[in-house]
Each structure stands twice: as structure tokens, then as C-alpha cells.
Amino acid sequence: MKVIAVNGSPKADGNTFHALNMVGSELKENGIGFEILHIGNKQIHGCLGCNKCGLNKDEKCSIKTDDLNEYIQKLKEADGIILGSPVYYSGIAGTMKCFLDRVFYVSGSNGNLFRHKVGAAVCAVRRSGGSSTLDGLYHYLTYSEMILATANYWSIIHGRAEGEALSDTEGSQIMRILGKNMAWILKMKEVSECAVTPPEKEKKVSMNFIR
């Protein structure tokens, strides 16, 4: 089994990285592979709303100026996905938002590539806005019918300078518990696959309110 974490911070070793790494350490302790994709420092364009991914059904975004299509396939192959973002103006960092909009739109337009994967989200914040940012990250996971891993509090860690989050003792515990719970859910899912039949996938019903 393997979990892919997405670091949406422009800083490779910032507090978002440390939060993800804390979760990953627990996963690795449980024999689960762990990798961090650092996308927050990339040039990633926002979604154009062209719907070519839905028309072509090739699991690809029409924008070819970045490595997003490569990332989609890595996430598709993973058993679990963790979304991590710093907090910018009480919301998801811009590059991360562009990444998520396109990745999850391609997924949803191609049969829901992430359905029933185990998902989690974390964010790093100096002071305020963590809850609204975390809520925004959860929107992508719940839309995709993913199985959510949680901890004993909101998965938010505090710190401003790089590495300050390591001094947030409560936040550090939250990340450790999140990692342990995610490993447990992944193992339960693996064991139950042959014993419990998952619910049949339904074709999505779409309705416009103005006709």
C-alpha cells in the first residue's frame, strides 16, 4: 500500500511539509509507503472550464504546460491521498487550489478515479483561518466519495517560521494520530476487500436549476 501526500506550500521545508511528514512517519511505521509531491512551487494554471477531460475520457487535462497529468496518474495508483496546504487569507493557497480544481475535475469527469480511496487533509497556519481552509480541502475528498481519516481534533498545525510547527505539541499529536488512524483504515480496507462488496457506483445525476 502507498499514500501520496500533496504539499501545496511554496516552501519545500515549511510547516505544511512538517505536518505531512509527521503523518507519513506513522504510516511508514505501519509498513505503508509514503511520498510527498511538492507542487506549491510549480507553475500550475487554473482550470479553463473547457470540459475536454470529460469529452475525451482520457484521464487527462487539456492543459499541457505543466506536469498535472503525471500527478493524476500517481494519485490514481495510490491507496490513500493527503492534501496539505498553508493558509492564505483564510483559504487554500492559490497554486494548490489550481491543482485541486483540475485534478479533481479530471477525476470526476472520468468515472471518479479516487472513489473509495482513503483521504485526509492538513493545513498549517500562523494564527487564524485554519478551519475554513481545512473545510475547503475536505470538499474535494467528500465530493469524490473518499473514506476520510481523522484525528482527535481538526488537523491544523500552527507556526510561522519554517519548522515552528514542530513546537506545536498539540498539533504534532494530531498529526501522529491522523497517521495512525489512516494506517488503520487502510489495513481494514485491505482485509475487508474480499469479504465485503462495495456499493455499486452510480452514474452521477446532474440538474441545472435554471432551465
Describe the structure.
The protein has 211 residues and is an alpha/beta fold. It has a single domain, classed as 3-Layer(aba) Sandwich (Rossmann fold), CATH 3.40.50. Helix content is 40%, strand content 17%. It contains 6 helices and 7 strands. Strands 1, 2, 3, 4, 5, 6 and 7 form a 7-stranded mixed beta sheet that branches. Helix 1 crosses helix 6. The longest helix has 24 residues.
Percentage of helical residues?
A: 25-40%
Question: What's the SSE pattern?
Answer: EHEHHEEHEHEEH
CATH class: Alpha Beta
Name the CATH superfamily classification. Flavodoxin domain
Count the domains.
1
- Fold-level CATH name: Rossmann fold
Computed over alpha carbons, the radius of gyration is 17 Å
For the termini, the CA-CA separation is 46 Å
Tally the beta strands.
7
Structural class: alpha/beta
By CATH, the architecture is named 3-Layer(aba) Sandwich
Shape type: globular
Please, how many helices? Answer: 6
Q: State the low-pLDDT regions, or none.
A: none
Mean pLDDT: 97
Strand content: 15-25%
Largest β sheet strand count, sense and barrel closure: 7 strands, mixed
Secondary structure elements and pairings:
Elements: E1 2-7, H1 15-29, E2 33-38, H2 52-56, H3 68-77, E3 80-88, E4 91-92, H4 94-109, E5 118-125, H5 130-143, E6 147-148, E7 156-158, H6 169-192
Parallel strand pairs: 1-2, 1-3, 3-5, 5-6, 5-7
Antiparallel strand pairs: 3-4
